[in-house]
Amino acid sequence: MLVIKDLHVSVVGKEILKGLNLTILAGEVHAIMGPNGAGKSTLANVIAGRGGYEITSGSVTYKNKDLLAMLPEERAWAGVFLAFQYPVEIPGVNNTYLLKAGVNAKRKQQDLDALDAIDFMKIVKEKAKLVELDPSFLSRSVNEGFSGGEKKRNEIFQMAVLEPSLALLDETDSGLDIDALRVVAKGVNKLRGEDRAIMMVTHYQRLLDYIEPDFVHVLANGKILKTGDKSLALELEERGYDWVKAEALGSEKSV
Amino acid sequence: MSVAAIRRRAFDLFKETGLPSTRHEDWKYTDISRIQHVLSIDSSSTAPIDNHASIINSTAIADLDAYKAVLVDGVFDDAHSNLPEDVTVLSLAAFLNDMGGQAPDDIQRLFEVRGDEPLFNGLLALNSAKASDGVLLCVANNTVLEKPLYIQHISTQTNFIRHAILMGKQAEAEVIEHYVGVSEEKALSSLSSNVILKQGARLQHIRIQQESNQQTHIARVEVKQLQDSSYTLHAVELGCALSRVDVVVALAEQGATCALNGLFVLGGRQHVDHHTRIDHIAPHCTSRENYRTVLDGRSRAVFNGKVVVHKGAVKTDSAQSNGNLLLSKHAEIDTKPELEIYNDDVKCAHGATVGQLDEQQLFYLRSRGISAVAAQELLTFAFADEVLTSMSNQQVRAYIEGIAFAKLPHGAELDGLLG
Ligand SMILES: Nc1ncnc2c1ncn2[C@@H]1O[C@H](COP(=O)(O)OP(=O)(O)OP(=O)(O)O)[C@@H](O)[C@H]1O
Ligand SMILES: [Mg+2]
Predict the structure, then answer these.
(1) What's the CA gap between A241 and A36, in Å, rounded?
(2) Best interface-test mutation with A: which of B294, B325, B362, B366 has the largest number of A CBs within 10 A?
(3) Where in chain A are the domains?
(4) What is the model's pLDDT at position B45?
(5) Does the global pTM surpass 0.90?
(6) Nearest-CA neighbor of B393 among B64, B30, B85?
(7) Mutate which of A82, A90, A109, A140 to disrupt the B interface (most B C-beta within 10 Å)?
(8) Architecture of domain A2-254
(9) pLDDT tens digits, residue range A137-167?
């Protein structure tokens, strides 16, 4: 589904990703962990097509297409979705209209007829129920005046409506209370499937109790330094990241 | 003194003063030399009446449930008007005619122009001298005008109009002034509206300037508010090559509230200048200002918001905000708040922003599958529409949205997107 090879990315002249490799197959769930400022959001943003990053070398292939050559909206149409670490407020733009426009733009690309208002509202209501989003949020401006947790829940709601094939969740669990975490996990697990993949950035092992990952990666020093299974997250929780860096340094030296 | 004498004096004042020039501080950014032709207007000419039934129909806000007054080139068109029976709405010219020039003091005062009043300029004197007609709306005490009064102005040539709105105690009304021009010449529409709100009166006032792109629109709205009265203005600027509007509000008695809202959506070489002045004279009055501009092409906007808090006006609550969106690097905005405060016990806030669209918002929308162009339009529209959220008349709001929408560079992209 997603193949990243030797990816180098700089932000305002500073290299953040320094030769990152990552392959995510359809049906898999990957967790990305790593210290603050390591470049986890950078990675998710680059995949989704956010501007302001300089990609100096490497490739990102999605469903055998060169993702880096595509516009952000083309990536969305192709099934890429980013749940933002910090969802932005957009006063005056209605939450539901935005989704309707997004869904129908995608359908247009697939040569499908636009959903009419009734069919669309049916989907929206069903998904809102799934993530236990109060219907009053549907008619509000995108994220405007939402609490931190409500914004995150709204991201998962949007994901549920747009049904992406590749979902990138950037710290969706941060700032959520226990109940919200459970609900968000329910939304994500519902999306899991043979032909979908999920990459989730998190700082907390706890999320992985709810959404079981196939792989856990440590992103540090601009690369995936270590990959393991769920138990790696437990180990990180106990020991922090320094030992991973030291281990990586050791193996580099021994080469 | 007769009305005619007052107007002759006004004409003398105009002859003395002439047109404002850019050397004049209040006119520094706005050059009106394009309307030099008005200098050669003599004191006796009147605008010829020309009736354009089809233009009246095609330019009106469709299906508006309202009373209607139509003015064509500054002359009341009775045949196309539909006025209420129980509330006084008259053609000013007809009224003066009936009175044989000896109008009551209230009406005489409407024509008085003094060289030392706030934002005075020669055109104001010329308007007093030349105004051929206008609407005189008098809502009696404790009376509610059941439907909005829709005043449709059609201009094909230079015209001068003077409106008067007199709201009695606890009276309520909504007035929509709609200016449509069909002239390809550099015609001037000169307007002056005098509004008086007595105790507890409430007026919703909407001005939609949508004249043709060769025309010039110069207007003054003067409002005097008595105790606990409430005045809300939405001034929408869409048309004309050049438009200048001065809004002068006097909060003369306790508890009066005014809200001035402005929206300019401009492109090409359009130039729009609004100067507002709010005088907080009495204590416990509230004023709000919210002006937004969307500027494309080589358009230019000027916003000058002056608030004067007089000595006795304690507990004044005043806030002003001005947001400007520049869609083109050739567009220009000059914005200036001016606060003059002569007592300590006041709350005054103001803020102006000038900017482009927010990159984070744009990316957010695109990441949800909205094309770049549509995302830009959507954000631009949302920015502009914020000013209209305080408009209670949803029909008029939808009309303005439709016109403003079509003016955006890629408005069509958004069709249906807003549902
Ligand atoms: N626009 C920018 N300008 C300057 N520096 C930036 C910019 N964007 C990112 N960076 C820097 O790039 C580095 C990586 O940032 P990124 O947000 O990807 O980290 P992260 O791994 O997601 O961290 P966290 O766990 O705190 O969310 C940081 O040092 C950050 O300061
Ligand atoms: Mg991050």
Answers:
(1) 11
(2) B366
(3) 2-254
(4) 47
(5) no
(6) B64
(7) A90
(8) 3-Layer(aba) Sandwich (3.40)
(9) 998 999 999 999 999 999 999 999 999 999 9
